[in-house]
Amino acid sequence: MRAYLLPILLIAFVLAVPAGIPQTGPHTPERDSSRQEPPADARTGAENGVRRLLLSQVDAWNQGKLESFMQGYWQSPDLTFFSGATITKGWEPTLLRYRRRYQAEGKERGKLEFQLLNIDVLSEKSAVVTGTWRLTMSDGQQPHGLFTLIMKQLADGWRIVHDHTSSE
């Protein structure tokens, strides 16, 4: 009787498994059909818009125009900025953080550069950007680090809605 039990259980299992379930893991490329690439022209337009915004931020920073630099961020209390073990929530608190760190007495802004930019367009209205940042200070020091930005195209253009920046 036991000799027949294993084949019967195996047949019952095979019949119970839905035929439409792929035999790949949940994170394999074959299974990830939920993300469809935007059309090439939309992707190119989004990449150009994101790149223009980031270049305008670098220009504003290097000209000492912090408020213009901050125009690249979503002006919302829901903006998030993560750095180290600190979470800053909201556009105004993020502006104040930048002022304290780079415009307070005895602080220097330095010259900003972004490098190794990777713009991953997720849809016509959203993108993830990764890259490196470097400040060149008047004494030759060069604080630097990595960043990840979540960006959305809003009514007033592309904006950073989340910034996670780290430094060495």
For the record, the CATH architecture stands as Roll
Number of helices: 4
State the low-pLDDT regions, or none: 4-31
Q: Give the DSSP E fraction (strand runs of 2 or more residues).
A: 25-35%
* CATH level-3 fold name: Nuclear Transport Factor 2, Chain: A
Question: Biggest sheet: strands, sense, closure?
Answer: 6 strands, mixed
Q: What's the shape?
A: globular
Helix content: 25-40%
Average of the residue pLDDT scores: 84
Write down the domain tally: 1
CATH class assignment: Alpha Beta
Radius of gyration: 24 Å
Structural class: alpha+beta
- Give the beta-strand count: 6
User: Reading side by side through the largest sheet, how are the strands ordered?
Assistant: 2-1-6-5-4-3
Looking at how many chains there are and whether they match, the oligomeric state comes to single chain
Order of helices and strands: HHHEEHEEEE
Distance between the termini: 68 Å
Topology:
Blueprint: H1 2-16, H2 40-62, H3 66-70, E1 80-83, E2 86-89, H4 91-102, E3 111-123, E4 126-136, E5 144-154, E6 157-167
In short:
The protein has 168 residues and is α+β, with helices and mostly antiparallel strands. It has 4 helices and 6 strands. Helices cover 33% and strands 32% of the residues.
